[in-house]
Amino acid sequence: MSDIQDSEFDRPVFIVSSPRSGAELLFETLMRAPRVFTVGSASHKLVEGIDALHVRAHGFDSNRLGTAHATPEVITQVRQGYRDGAVDRDGANPRRLPLRLLDKTPKHSLRIPFLAEVFPQAHFIYLYRDPREALTNMLLAWESNRYCTYKTLPGWPRPHWSLLLTPGWRELAGKPLADIVAGQWRAATEVLLDDLAALDAERWRVVRYQDFIENPAGEIARLCLSLDYAWDRPLDGGLAGLIKPPTVADAEIVRRHAADLQRVWPSVQATAERAARVAGVTRVH
Questions:
Q1: How far apart are the first and last CA of the chain?
Q2: 115-127 CB burial, b ≥16 within 10 A, e <16
Q3: What is the pLDDT of residues 104-154, one digit of tens each?
Q4: Contact 53, 42 (CB under 8 A)
Q5: What pLDDT sits at residue 257?
Q6: Which Pfam families match (predicted)?
Q7: Which of 144, 197, 261, 283 is the most exposed place for a label (fewest CB within 10 A)?
């Protein structure tokens, strides 16, 4: 890893996580570091905006991208997109290369081999969150109708598909929503953990969501040291105002689906326990 040279991107960092695990909060905090560049919300379209990488190009199978998708032409397009769109915390473009890139989009949890091929110095942060919390948030995302990733998905009976498109999604057609989010979470998490395990250990590290929200200053200090980021803005006020409390409507939706969420737990338990071991969590509630 240390012998790999990249004249444009210096150790780019990609945050990956199971769906709805708080990656946006971690991203929005880390992007405040000096001399760190992001493409912001453009990341959602940057990769799939390339025709060869759009889900329709491979039969709507999933958002999964591997090394085979990283052709020389695609590598050039992806790197150019990130290079041209990169801005720092103040909205300024990089004055010189290589730049420190930070990126996050939910689909990246299915793209680790692809990203590692496109960016030879890539590092990854695995953000772990209690699976029950993630499943609840996923269910709320589907119910909200605000996370319509694909409004028309061939063979999908619901009006839209929410969040990332996971391998095996067709097997979820016609099932209750709790079964859909459970299958989606399990598939994404298994792919994510398998891909991280295939990397050199020095290329990825874990952040536990609970640790981050309870001690943001400490976790950011630890991460910055690990990533060789500078940090010059205090987090003494914690993350106040950044974490949205659940609404009464959210609580009602969760109550309505509570029995189903409990019913599907055995289908994800083995994956949940594996994720907990990777994250150093001794017990899955």
A1: 37
A2: bbbbbebbbbbbb
A3: 999 999 999 999 999 999 999 999 999 999 999 999 999 998 889 999 899
A4: no
A5: 84
A6: Sulfotransfer_3 (PF13469)
A7: 283
* The dihedral formed by the CA atoms of 217, 87, 123 and 284, expressed in degrees to the nearest 10: 50
Residues 119, 148: Cα–Cα separation, whole Å:
29
The residues near 141 (Cβ < 8 Å, ≥ 6 apart) are 19, 20, 147, 162, 163
pTM over 0.90: yes
Residue with tokens 């699976």, as numbered in its chain: 131
What's the rounded Cα separation, in Å, for the pair 27 and 228?
16
Whole-angstrom distance, CA of residue 268 vs CA of residue 131:
9
Rounded CA separation 132/138 (Å): 10
Residues 142 and 162 sit within 8 Å (Cβ to Cβ) = yes
Sign of the torsion formed by the C-alpha atoms of 251, 253, 258 and 263: negative
Locate all alpha helices (DSSP H) within 49-130, ordered by sequence: 72-85, 112-118
Go through the domains of the chain in sequence order and give each one's CATH number: 13-279 (3.40.50)
Does the bond joining 98 to the residue before it have cis omega, within 30 degrees of 0?
yes
Rounded CA gap, 260 and 254, in Å?
Answer: 10
